[in-house]
Amino acid sequence: MRAAILRNTGDHDLEVRDDITLRPTGPGEVKVRITHSGVCHSDLSAMNGTIPQPPPAVLGHEGAGIVEEIGAGVTSVVPGDHVIIAWSPPCGKCKSCVDHKQPNLCFNIMMVMGGQFRQGDEIIGSMAGTGTFAEYTLVPEPAVVKIDNDIPLEVASLIGCGVMTGAGAAINTAKVSPGSSVIVYGAGGVGISAIQGARIAGAAEIVAVDMNINKLEEAKAFGATHSCTPDEVDSLKNSITGGMGFDYALECIGKPVTMRAAYDQTRRGGTTCIVGVGRMDEFVQFSAFELFFNEKILVGSYYGGTDVRSDFHMLLRLYRSGKLDLDRMITRRIKIDEINDAMRAMERGEVVRQVIEF
Ligand code: PAD
Ligand code: ZN
Ligand code: ZN
């Protein structure tokens, strides 16, 4: 089958091959025919080493498709079911899942995912254990969430990462409250989803910040009430918040400079939510005084604080009722052969989401 592989960390291009196979479906596993995969910035970050991903690996982690085959003991899906792939699925039994009620942080399933692809005898890994830049993948049962067959699978694929992450960061992690002011750094797939999450949560003002001016109008179509480039933020802060700062700032880029800016634009006592993924060897500085003095809540958001078993359906209900716009988030539909062009377009900040159609 066809798949896009990262051969070495730092490679500029993925290798699109047509001789990749899957190992046989084992007990508790589900083989999925991937119909659509979104292209998330984290895939690019796996290529350049921002996100550690041992090569060789089939990239892609934002996918949906149709169950092809189930292993012994699988009960939640049957062949023909439509599913969204979850890259951090809950085991449902551990401390994270049960005691802490943070199933997004469960490692038990994630630890055993991956290693499903082969090129000849060579084992090929997969991004976050999922590898959705391939015609088929094989994952443990908790990593598939069954959805209704009438949901377009291209839309469903986006929920697998970017939409769940951004909307979940606003709704679950930051817990944006009605009538509040929100600033979102980055208007890519994750940032646009955070803007939509803030709108759904009832924010009064939502400021989108992006250095790419094409994104500024686009962000307004998804619910931003204002938009600006980074150097124009201070004047909007003054006019919207009287200089106090925003109730919530969500960073959806992954750079130290914008993480620091998000903290600075948060009002005293407000919430700074870091969604973007930066490098392990990059740092954000805070003075030892300001953390106490400002009493800001500084919180990371991993997969939008989601419980995929319920939140995917929550987002799909919002989509069906017209409150979450997913159709217009798809800037471009591509074939797997165009994946490297898609990465370049994302690097240039030209797109909200590109979806690979298999
Ligand atoms: P994207 O590339 O689609 O969007 C990023 C946006 O940021 C683009 O519109 C850029 O123009 C803009 N931008 C870049 N640099 C700057 C800057 N210095 N100032 C202003 N704007 C800038 O990415 P995405 O939306 O797919 O992903 C965004 C981040 O979220 C990225 O770091 C990704 O790895 C991360 C992510 N986190 C999780 C999680 O679980 N926390 C999940 C998925 C993605
Ligand atoms: Zn992602
Ligand atoms: Zn668990």
UniProtKB/TrEMBL annotation:
This is Unannotated protein. SUPFAM superfamilies: GroES-like, NAD(P)-binding Rossmann-fold domains. Gene3D superfamilies: Medium-chain alcohol dehydrogenases, catalytic domain (3.90.180.10), NAD(P)-binding Rossmann-like Domain (3.40.50.720). The keyword Amino-acid biosynthesis does not apply. Keywords: Metal-binding, NAD, Oxidoreductase, Zinc. InterPro entries: ADH-like_C, ADH-like_N, ADH_Zn_CS, ER, GroES-like_sf, NAD(P)-bd_dom_sf. Its cofactor is Zn(2+). Residues 10-356 form the Enoyl reductase (ER) domain. GO terms for cellular component: cytosol. One of its GO terms (biological process) is formaldehyde catabolic process. It holds the Pfam family ADH_N. One of its GO terms (molecular function) is zinc ion binding. Transmembrane segments: none annotated. Coiled coil: none annotated.
